[in-house]
Amino acid sequence: MSELPDGVDRRAVAGEERLTTEGEPVYGEPTADGRRVWDAGRSKLGAMLELGMDTRLDGGESVLYLGAASGTTVSHVADFSGPTYAVEFAPRPVRDLVDVAEVRPNLFPLLADARKPREYAGVVEADLDCIVQDVATRGQADVANRNAQFLGEDGLLLAAIKARSENVVADPDAVFEDVRETLSGRYEVLETRRLEPYHDDHLGIVARKR
Amino acid sequence: MSELPDGVDRRAVAGEERLTTEGEPVYGEPTADGRRVWDAGRSKLGAMLELGMDTRLDGGESVLYLGAASGTTVSHVADFSGPTYAVEFAPRPVRDLVDVAEVRPNLFPLLADARKPREYAGVVEADLDCIVQDVATRGQADVANRNAQFLGEDGLLLAAIKARSENVVADPDAVFEDVRETLSGRYEVLETRRLEPYHDDHLGIVARKR
Amino acid sequence: MTETDDAWFAGVDPGDPEAAAAAIADGEADEPRDWPALAVESGFAADEDEYYDRLHDATVAAAREAARAAERADDKQLVHALRAMDDTERTANELAERLEEWAGALLDVETGATGLDFAAVVAEREPADATEERAVSLARRVVDLREERDDLRTFIERRAPAVAPNLAEMAGPVLAARLVSLAGGLESLAKMPSGTVQVLGAEDALFAHLRGHAPSPKHGVIFTHEFVSGTRPDDRGSAARALAGKLSIAARIDHYSGDFRESVHDDLRDRMETIRARAEEDQTEE
Amino acid sequence: MTETDDAWFAGVDPGDPEAAAAAIADGEADEPRDWPALAVESGFAADEDEYYDRLHDATVAAAREAARAAERADDKQLVHALRAMDDTERTANELAERLEEWAGALLDVETGATGLDFAAVVAEREPADATEERAVSLARRVVDLREERDDLRTFIERRAPAVAPNLAEMAGPVLAARLVSLAGGLESLAKMPSGTVQVLGAEDALFAHLRGHAPSPKHGVIFTHEFVSGTRPDDRGSAARALAGKLSIAARIDHYSGDFRESVHDDLRDRMETIRARAEEDQTEE
């Protein structure tokens, strides 16, 4: 199994080995020894780690998180990372995201459209170490490509691709192949893995900026 | 080629051999030598004769015509037959049928439903020689069976079956097979033939009451 | 029961063709018999030739009357269809108006189209979120209602000439159906004085007049006929009166005979040309 | 143009958090830069830690305000959806009424169902001719409109708690949307005296009262709330007044803070129980 980033540990919680990070509880998640459980069933990145994908994260990275929703996953990311920019487009979840960010000085919430990087290029710094992406809109590969400008040399992309967002009726494998093809212009794909049983018809991707 | 009934002749009209009968013109059909052309393209029974099916008609038969519509075909039938009962269900064409019948003392128009012989069993006489049927409703074989009561011994059925009336999407051959099967209880089928090129997806049937 | 109890000629006086026709229209029998022989036997006819003659007369009369009655019943369907057409058109427009308020800003629709046409544009949009989904779905309902209205109009255009051939020829199928609807049926329309036909659809104005509040209305829905609307205002009263008279005649022919009579249409065309010519003459003089 | 021209902190006074939030909300830039270093260089922050602190405060404030503004705009969508729901329901019923007149006799429908339910029965029929086709097709449009109404109601039920969580909790989502609609928006509702909220939807009765023709109305649409309708007639005036007061408070919290406040709901529940208990007591005494 690949190494976890510093700041992410497995702990026995209620008899099970669970991923944990240290920080203010956010969504009623179980805690143990002052650490809170990172539920892979509610987080694509959590599932990628749980399934042993090599994220190449050491901890302490600067991160752009696209599709932060109400902040469940990004709260864990911010727990073990450096400056963390969280972009979310829907107003309602941003209200929760703001609560999550308020108690995390390194987490910067942005109500913006991940398909329009101009909207936040004046706020998000250049040369970031990593983009984490979990946007459930059509054109997910395109979103990753447009945001590659924020990554430094060899910057990482950790993306979860939802097949149904691209095409409700198509075969997920065909969708994933298409996504991979679109990504290959800006990224070198290092590893892919379906996120079952945590998330159906999702593909986890680890890629490096070319 | 089979013999035509007495009263139906082939005549050269505008250079072509055409079926003709003698009677008052009805629908603007061409006439020659006081005889009027029986257009096989507008008449299923005309097409059966034109295609050489052996109708076993000699002329002078007593006839029950089911599905007389505005009277195009039944006017020719009455021209060479004995008492001719014409049943039609739709009010609008019956207005034209009445005009056709008015000048033919042996033609008796009836506004009635061919699926309900009780409605006209008190008018139409028993022991008829022939039923001609051209009803474009579902259950065409059933209509023929219900009306068999009007035929005398060895009475004839001359029917045109429209495949699309039974089942719009099914293969016509399958429909025709099914019709033949349903008929076989009351009739012995003597001859069948598709009515192309005069009428697409229609089957002409000559049968004898069992 | 004797053998001839359910024959069409049972109990019918050979000299009463109406009774014979009614027996044919309404009779029922369990099975066919040798009716010609039985008729002669029972004394209804002297021989089979006479029987067939009587049968011929009776069936022709019965079929003609039955066809006419069935078509007369069709005037009710025509009226239902017309009212449904009006209702679908009205509701489509009301929903389109609501949609304009909603979708104009929401979907940033740039089109000169309004009303039903606006709805047709919106219905083609790909909704981007749940709100747009509802607006686009509403637009599709509007388009559906417009199609329903068009289908009903087509139905009326096909059916009116069958129900009332002369009225439909003279008034156009939709106005013909509207007159039948306002009168409450073809029979009522046929029995109306032409002065009433003239103001059908202007009941409010007529009642105001009868209460002494207003002048007598010159025309009701027949105003939509080009014979009235295309005539200069001064002549509209007399044009409306003339048209109403012709329409009454047409309705009566349709109800009582059902035949198409070319002559009444020629009359109206002549009359129309006279009025037009006079109007043009006057204009030339001015 | 210097390197920091399109930075969020360009021209922003570090001591002015509102300006900072506005710059984040409205700014645009061609490409990202090393903003922390540039901010220190330009003197916006003493060091990168201070920069991140300021960035944190500004992004949190900007995101909170932007989310709230976007949701406030949602009250307009809620109002549009509510009015569309009312329109689809009304038009569906009107067309169903027309259909009942038509299809009842035509299709020989034997069902105790009326209105929209009758239309649902007819919509399932297999039409036998062109007339029946039109009637069945009309029935299907009615069923479509009913589905549209149901979808709009579902939309409102999902959306009202997001737009006005306290009002939706207290009034139920549809009544909450109706109050917002009658007031012309959540902001207007929040700014209304509770006496006006009490009679929203009873404008006709209110104007009659103001012209001296009628007593002052005791309640408008809030009558549909069980707190009023479930209260015995004598107490309805005071129940309506109490409910309107609470609804006003709920609307104000929703507009100005947007948080859910359990306490105001407890208050109403207590109040309701008191009124109910008193009513029961009185009944027992009788």
TrEMBL record, chains A, B:
The organism's place on the tree of life at top rank: Archaea
Entries under PROSITE patterns matching the protein: FIBRILLARIN (PS00566)
Bias-annotated ranges (Basic and acidic residues): 7-21
InterPro entries according to UniProt: Fibrillarin, Fibrillarin_CS, SAM-dependent_MTases_sf
EC number: 2.1.1.-
Residues annotated as binding S-adenosyl-L-methionine: T72, T73, E88, F89, D113, A114, D134, V135, A136, T137
Keyword Cell inner membrane: no
Keywords carried by this UniProt record: Methyltransferase, RNA-binding, rRNA processing, Transferase, tRNA processing
Gene3D superfamilies named among the record's database cross-references: Vaccinia Virus protein VP39 (3.40.50.150)
Coiled-coil stretches noted in the UniProt entry, renumbered to this chain: none
SMART domains: Fibrillarin
Pfam families per UniProt: Fibrillarin (PF01269)
Gene Ontology terms: biological process: methylation; rRNA processing; tRNA processing
Chain segments carrying region Disordered: 1-32
MF terms in GO: methyltransferase activity; RNA binding
Family indicated by similarity: Belongs to the methyltransferase superfamily. Fibrillarin family.
Reported function: Involved in pre-rRNA and tRNA processing. Utilizes the methyl donor S-adenosyl-L-methionine to catalyze the site-specific 2'-hydroxyl methylation of ribose moieties in rRNA and tRNA. Site specificity is provided by a guide RNA that base pairs with the substrate. Methylation occurs at a characteristic distance from the sequence involved in base pairing with the guide RNA.
Assembly description: Interacts with nop5. Component of box C/D small ribonucleoprotein (sRNP) particles that contain rpl7ae, FlpA and nop5, plus a guide RNA.
Protein name per its UniProtKB record: Fibrillarin-like rRNA/tRNA 2'-O-methyltransferase
Lineage of the organism: Archaea, Methanobacteriati, Methanobacteriota, Stenosarchaea group, Halobacteria
Gene that specifies this protein: flpA
